[in-house]
Amino acid sequence: MFTFGWSEIFLIGIIVVVVIGPKDLPKFIKQVGSFTKYIKKMSSEFKSSINEIAEEEEIKELAKSVKEVKKIKDGINIKKNFENEIKEVQETVKMTENEFSKKN
Fold first, then answer.
1. pTM over 0.85
2. Which residues contact 17 (CB under 8 A, 6 or more apart)?
3. Helix, strand or coil for residue 5?
4. Which residues lie closer than 8 Å to 25 by C-beta, 6 or more apart?
5. How far, in Å, CA of 31 to CA of 26, rounded?
6. Number of CB atoms found within 10 A of residue 84's CB
7. CA–CA separation, 87 vs 81, rounded Å?
8. Per residue in 47-104, pLDDT tens?
9. Cα–Cα distance between 102 and 48 in angstroms, integer?
């Protein structure tokens, strides 16, 4: 994002020493350190909460996919479909036999 060379860093250091003063410089450095620590903590908490939300959504989508697969499985149950087809053929044969026997 930002790129600083050694000359820019040195210039910023000189400006900080002049503006803040050498007496308050350790206090300022400590405050900057605690601020960066706070920012890192907040960013890690934010990242973990986003990851939790993403995992919850993935679990919901996975459960939805499993339900869809179960529906498809029930629709494709070959044995049940085959048995239904055999019953229909048997009923058709019986009806045909009855019709044939009536005509004779």
1. no
2. 25
3. coil
4. 16, 17
5. 9
6. 11
7. 10
8. 998 888 888 888 888 888 888 888 777 667 777 778 888 889 899 888 888 887 877 6
9. 79
Instruction: Spell out the domain ranges in the chain.
Output: 6-103
Half-sphere exposure of 101 (CA within 13 A, CB side): 6
The type of residue at 3 is T
How distant is the alpha carbon of residue 61 from its chain centre? 8
User: What b/e string do you get for 48-58 counting C-beta neighbours within 10 Å, with b at 16 or more?
Assistant: eeeeeeeeeee
How many whole angstroms from its chain centre is CA 99? Answer: 63
DSSP string for residues in 16-82: HHHHH-TTTHHHHHHHHHHHHHHHHHHHHHHHHHHHHHHHHHHHHHHHHHHHHHHHHHHHT-HHHHH
Residues 6+ apart with CB under 8 A from 20: 28
